[in-house]
Design goal:
By secondary structure, the chain is α+β, with helices and mostly antiparallel strands. It has 13 helices and 12 strands.
Length: about 425
């Protein structure tokens, strides 16, 4: 795969294409203050800076010397160590950048995708705020995270997410209508231990900035002992996306297996999960935070295309409201995957990494903790996207209002509890 779009040179007698980048491309990447940017229409300056920085950040994350970006032979050599997915991403970034410089405007499909994402998801505002938060808490460093495998994983770009939404706009139409418009950027590839420590530090910093916030300073986060080192080592205690909550035939994968599988998966965002959840107010895309998990009978149908009932209305089939067991929730979601008429089609259970990230975003946006089940309005969250096979337990997470702590707990997969519910999401 050529990393630069070949340009024909009629002066060459051998008829071969020259694959070296143009002088303009070299200057645009290498110059800290670029005259190339100023040659573009002003409305495209921000796009230029964003795309240029994405290329530089990608190179840093993959240990590619910046000067190699302007030297085809050196770049080809450096790129040999990249996975197919990473190589495709770099080639796409460079091709888009060269197109912008040559045509003085972004590629049409990119512009159309961004316009779509802005109109239907208000994506840029959400993306910028979350990237800023992830940077402030130390998760993002130079635009990337460090995975449990020691590799760097750049945060997916705004354009990548917008393109994915645009490509799947028809299949996502019903979920958008049901209110799944709230972005959640999750650094899945990171160590769960590091994310837990980040949550603790985040809570302590939030307390400093908001003295009236009630928090246990000595123990801001309570964790079951099984959470320690759960996603690392030769035999991780935690698996993801199980097909059943059974000890031996769960069908789940370890985090390392998922990261390995993402190397050549063009549909994935390596090291990251990109979700869309329901905002606190389903009628307002811009409402802060995420929707509560309601108690039985408290909800109303969501959406008009395929109304999503949060309450029991299909005979004995449990609804997605608080009360059913983790086994029942998993069955609902699995059956929905093969049933396009199901109101829950396209939804998935969340992981511990998803919840920790969502908790920090929710608290930063609303000033209130997520899943504060003791306030008689919310429920704790059953995370069916993760599983502890040895104990046959499913993560159960919540805010303890009395003890003023975030709790990373677990629950028997058969237990029913009127205060425990499921927050599902749509992964793109």
């Amino acid at each position: 795969m050529s990393l630069f779009r070949p340009t024909s040179d009629p002066s060459r007698r051998d008829g071969r294409d020259e694959s070296a980048p143009s002088t303009t491309l070299r200057e645009a990447i290498m110059d800290s203050v670029s005259s190339v940017r100023d040659s573009l229409p002003e409305q495209h300056h921000e796009h230029f800076e964003t795309l240029r920085q994405e290329i530089i950040d990608f190179a840093k994350a993959h240990d590619i010397p910046r000067e190699s970006l302007s030297k085809p032979d050196a770049l080809t050599q450096a790129a040999r160590k990249l996975s197919t997915s990473d190589l495709t991403q770099l080639a796409n970034l460079l091709e888009r950048f060269e197109y912008l410089l040559k045509n003085k405007e972004p590629r049409e499909e990119i512009s159309e995708a961004i316009e779509y994402a802005e109109e239907f998801y208000h994506l840029k505002k959400q993306y910028d705020l979350q990237v800023e938060l992830l940077t402030e808490v130390g998760i993002l460093k130079e635009g990337a995270i460090t995975g449990i495998d020691g590799k760097k994983y750049p945060v997916p770009t705004l354009e990548q997410i917008a393109s994915r939404l645009f490509e799947r706009r028809e299949t996502l139409e019903t979920k958008h209508d049901q209110g799944f418009t709230k972005l959640l950027l999750v650094p899945f590839g990171m160590s769960l231990d590091v994310l837990q420590e980040t949550l603790e530090h985040f809570l302590l910093e939030h307390k400093k900035e908001n003295p009236t916030f009630k928090l246990s300073i000595s123990i801001p986060v309570v964790k079951e002992k099984e959470y320690k080192g759960a996603d690392t080592g030769d035999s991780p205690k935690l698996v993801y996306y199980p097909q059943s909550f059974t000890k031996d035939d769960h069908g789940g994968k370890t985090k390392m297996q998922i990261l390995e599988g993402q190397k050549d998966d063009q549909e994935s965002f390596p090291g990251w999960n990109i979700h869309f959840l329901q905002p606190s107010n389903l009628k307002d895309i811009d409402s802060p935070g995420f929707a509560f998990i309601l108690h039985e009978g408290q909800g109303t149908p969501q959406g008009g295309l395929t109304p999503r009932p949060p309450f029991r209305e299909r005979g004995d089939r449990p609804p997605l409201e608080a009360g059913p067991s983790p086994n029942e929730y998993l069955t609902i979601l699995q059956e929905a995957q093969d049933d396009k008429d199901s109101p829950y089609h396209g939804e998935t259970g969340m992981t511990s990494e998803d919840w920790i990230t969502a908790f920090m975003i929710h608290l930063s946006e609303t000033g209130k903790p997520l899943d504060n089940w003791e306030n008689d309005k919310e429920s704790s969250s059953c995370l069916t996207g993760a599983f502890f096979p040895s104990s046959v337990y499913v993560p159960d997470v919540y805010w303890n209002r009395v003890n003023r702590q975030a709790n990373l707990a677990w629950n028997d997969s058969r237990n029913r509890d009127g205060n425990v519910g499921l927050r599902s999401s749509v992964v793109v």
